[in-house]
Design goal:
This protein has 381 residues and is an alpha/beta fold. The protein folds into two domains: 12-179 and 363-379, Glycogen Phosphorylase B (Rossmann fold); 195-361, Glycogen Phosphorylase B (Rossmann fold, 3-Layer(aba) Sandwich), CATH 3.40.50.2000. It is built from 14 helices and 13 strands. The strands form two sheets. Strands 3-2-1-4-5-6-7 form a seven-stranded parallel β-sheet, sandwiched between helices. Strand 12 (305-308), helix 11 (313-316) and strand 13 (323-325) form a beta-alpha-beta unit. Helix 1 (24-38) packs across helix 14, helix 4 (104-114) packs parallel to helix 5 and helix 10 packs across helix 13. The longest helix is centred in the C-terminal third of the chain and has 16 residues, at 364-379.
Length: 381
């Protein structure tokens, strides 16, 4: 586990992430590390091995992209082998060194591994504050640990008062909005060919890229699609890229509503840029969010939008064309889908302004520059 040789004095950052799949936070980290390297910040991704079936999707994707990464075995809620492995990496990595954690488990193990060392820890909160049950407890623990960290970053402004209420010093909280690769997500990307999936060439496609979990409201989206198609003309489809715990329930809901032949589940995809290029309208019906990468990716691809304004979404879209719907309201969602379909492709809002907003404010280079400034400030403090 010896790190690669780096230029003398270059700041090194160990990014810790516990993951069971490839979703927004994972893709944010995968984009951040190479962008930081271009900005003179060395980095390595440490994937804490999840318990659920040995999921290695994040590590494998990092290897594919050439992102320096390795797996830290983590066999339980408190695995001292994980702590010892992380301490060995910390000891072997040249200074100046910082730890950047991206979830509650990573925060816990980073805190244990630091063990009194003068080693700055930065945490990014990706927006998971509205969960219940066990996750609610874990996020409570995470916020308690954050009080001991040097810097906490949030991806949406609405998270900041939650952290202050949890006892964090407001002066150590900073908003850094997510950024994406605008060269990859582009209006001229080659569209995904849906003919192999039985879709008509002229099919009007409502598309989503989401984790199939309650937060994203996939069952409500399917219900809205079924309601909206009653008033449509011509072939339509709902195409969902992504996977998650509600996949079987979502498929069953489509079957029960009689639209199973029109709802396509693509599963996890590595070619989302092609998916966006085929979507006539991008759907984001989330019940709560931080700042979803899928929104920024669809905007960068200049796709017309139907969204709920939760988390940072309202600020991102301020003054821009998008159909906005009520959070958790199937009827509102169905009405927006009917309006979009009746308008047809020629009647959809021009997406050029959406892409321009991303180019100006939400590029991965801007995000990396913001984090690099924090790292440099802490490394020289």
């Amino acid at each position: 586990m010896s790190p690669q040789r780096r230029p003398e004095g270059q700041i090194q950052v160990l990014h810790l992430r516990s993951s069971i799949g490839l979703y927004g936070a994972e893709n944010m980290v995968l984009g951040l590390i190479p962008a930081l390297q271009r900005d003179g910040i060395g980095g390595r991704l440490l994937c804490l091995q999840a318990l659920q079936g040995g999921e290695r999707a994040l590590f494998e994707r990092a290897v594919e992209l050439g992102v320096p990464a390795e797996v830290l075995p983590c066999a339980g809620r408190l695995d001292w082998q994980t702590v010892r492995a992380l301490r060995r990496l910390i000891a072997a990595t040249p200074r100046p060194l910082l730890l950047h954690v991206h979830d509650y488990k990573s925060a816990f193990y980073a805190w244990l591994a630091r063990a009194g060392r003068a080693l700055p820890i930065i945490a990014t909160s990706h927006g998971q504050f509205n969960d219940s049950g066990r996750l609610h407890l874990y996020h409570h623990i995470e916020r308690a640990l954050m009080r001991r960290f040097q810097q906490v970053c949030t991806v949406s402004a609405e998270m900041q008062p939650v952290l202050v209420a949890a006892g964090l010093d407001a002066s150590r909280i900073r908003l850094i909005e997510n950024g994406i690769d605008t060269d990859r997500f582009h209006p001229r990307a080659e569209p995904l060919d849906l003919s192999a999936l039985g879709m008509a060439p002229d099919c009007f496609v409502f598309g989503a890229a989401m984790r199939l979990a309650e937060q994203k409201f996939p069952l409500g989206l399917i219900e809205a699609y079924a309601a909206s198609r009653e008033a449509t003309q011509g072939p339509t489809a709902l195409v969902i890229a992504g996977d998650g715990p509600l996949r079987e329930a979502a498929q069953a809901r489509a079957e029960a509503l009689g639209v199973a032949g029109e709802v396509v589940f693509l599963g996890a995809r590595k070619d989302l840029e092609r998916c966006y290029a085929r979507f006539d309208v991008f759907m984001l019906p989330s019940l709560f969010e931080g700042l979803p990468l899928a929104l920024l990716e669809a905007m960068s691809a200049a796709r017309p939008l139907i969204v709920t304004e939760v988390g940072q979404i309202g600020q991102v879209l301020a003054g821009l064309p998008a159909r906005r719907v009520l959070q958790g309201d199937v009827a509102s969602l169905a009405q927006a889908m009917r309006a979009a379909r009746e308008a047809g492709r020629a009647g959809q809002p021009d997406g050029a302004a959406l892409r321009e907003r991303v180019m100006q404010r939400y590029s991965v280079a801007r995000m990396a520059a913001d984090y690099a400034a924090i790292y440099r400030g802490l490394a020289t403090a």
